[in-house]
Design brief:
Number of strands: 5
Structural class: alpha+beta
Strand content: 5-15%
Number of helices: 7
Order of helices and strands: HEHEEHEEHHHH
Distance between the termini: 39 Å
Largest sheet: 3 strands, antiparallel
Strand order of the largest sheet: 1-5-4
Helix content: 40-55%
Radius of gyration: 15 Å
Length: 173
Amino acid sequence: MAALKIEEVKKIICDAGGKIVGRTRLQKVAYLLNATGLDGSFRFAYKHYGPFSEDLASSAKLGALFGSFEERQANASWGGTYSTYTAEAVQDESQSEARTSLASVAAEADSIVLELAATAVFLFYEGYGDPWDETAQRKPEKATGDRLLNARNLLKELAAVDVPKPIPEALYS
């Protein structure tokens, strides 16, 4: 089934401007597209880095393997590796302006800020009364005051995009 979703991964990369740096960032961009009703290709569950789709991860690996898009791995300053996904961004008449706006803003955001924002949205929809407090409890090393403020501001920026399912105002006001 993952092979059927390779084109969806490519579309996410293209909608983000043809490049997404980081596997976590790919997951969060895809999740925010899903949460706002702009994509429904992948199901997400909570993992250590927030919303995660195993199907998306598998489809990204297969897509890179079969050449639908490119994945380059490089060494990170912290000792691990990270991936950069690129795809030839082809103008598509069916391409949604809202989708490209949201994907490109999210893909350009600081990766930790994006992770915090996507986690808060996920926890909101999971029914947590205070998703920001829950996010801070789950990610104490990342959830500094400035980062949480920047995550709220990111959601406010994303909320300005006209989407089928708007980001709840409670998450950024």
